[in-house]
């Protein structure tokens, strides 16, 4: 019965858009009790758009000039939100999980996570409370404005979180984004920031440590992610699930690829793997 059951599992998996790398992956799904969910691109679509610019005139132009050299979803939103020609950037540098810097028209411009909100602390707080990502723009080390970027929670993410709980998995939202934005997105999908279900402000290299710490507490961890910065955590996790819409690096790092851009596929993968295991044993 073994080959037939595996075949059924694989066939049904193909229907559901779940690609499992090998039979040993099925075994990993049995004991998982925790699921770490990357926010941007996993719980949300990751297709961001610029919704607000607050600051001195020229803020958006300077920011867009530097972001034109970056592939980050925030960068794409900022560049798309600017109309007109952009001045060239020199000495561009990307600091993963923090932001970008470059020289524009002889001025040093930094766009990235808000360390100092300058005169716009209220704007930052309100936008983050609405689940938006906010970045600050500094010119020659002085904060000149903030840019508000909106992402979209995938419509099925709340249902997926409920299904993962039903499967006995404790969900944790993990992100490099700020605490406020993370908490707002968490609430939209049925996660409780006050119950330790959100870990925010994590630098790219810190994601793997969050998974390791959970494992050290005795948890068996599944991780769902899409980004380059999720790859190490996907490898470290007992079960790594990569969004098929994600980066090649993440897909390579995962044990399972979720072809559908939908978090429900993660619950489907765990359910199907467990069912297939029961059939063959
Ligand atoms: P996530 O974990 O949600 O995928 P990242 O680790 O990619 O997020 O980024 C974390 C934070 O770093 C972003 O929310 C943003 O504040 C800042 N950041 C990263 N790259 C950029 C960029 N190119 N421009 C502006 N801000 C950036
Ligand atoms: Mg992501």
UniProtKB/TrEMBL annotation:
It is found in: Cell membrane. Coiled coil: none annotated. Belongs to the cation transport ATPase (P-type) (TC 3.A.3) family. Type IB subfamily. This is Heavy metal translocating P-type ATPase. The lineage of its organism: Bacteria, Bacillati, Actinomycetota, Actinomycetes, Geodermatophilales.
């Amino acid at each position: 019965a073994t080959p037939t059951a595996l075949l059924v599992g694989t066939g049904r998996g193909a229907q559901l858009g779940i690609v499992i790398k090998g039979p040993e992956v099925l075994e990993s799904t049995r004991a998982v009790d925790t699921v770490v969910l990357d926010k941007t691109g996993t719980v949300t679509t990751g297709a961001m758009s610029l919704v607000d610019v607050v600051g001195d005139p020229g803020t958006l132009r300077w920011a867009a000039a530097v972001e034109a050299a970056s592939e980050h979803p925030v960068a794409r939103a900022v560049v798309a939100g600017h109309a007109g020609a952009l001045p060239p950037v020199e000495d561009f540098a990307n600091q993963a999980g923090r932001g970008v810097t470059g020289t524009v028209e002889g001025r040093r411009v930094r766009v990235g996570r808000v360390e100092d909100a300058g005169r716009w602390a209220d704007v930052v707080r309100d936008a983050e409370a609405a689940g938006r990502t906010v970045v600050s723009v500094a010119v020659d080390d002085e904060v000149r404005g903030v840019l508000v970027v909106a992402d979209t929670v995938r419509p099925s993410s709340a249902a997926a979180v409920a299904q993962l709980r039903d499967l006995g998995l404790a969900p944790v939202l993990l992100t490099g984004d700020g605490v406020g934005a993370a908490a707002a997105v968490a609430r939209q999908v049925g996660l409780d920031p006050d119950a330790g279900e959100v870990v925010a402000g994590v630098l790219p290299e810190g994601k793997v440590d969050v998974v390791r710490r959970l494992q050290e507490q005795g948890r068996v961890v599944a991780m769902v992610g899409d980004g380059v910065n999720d790859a190490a955590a996907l490898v470290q996790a007992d079960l790594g699930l990569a969004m098929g819409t994600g980066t090649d690096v993440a897909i390579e790092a995962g044990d399972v690829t979720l072809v559908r851009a939908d978090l429900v596929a993660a619950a489907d993968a765990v359910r199907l793997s467990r069912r297939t295991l029961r059939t063959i044993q």
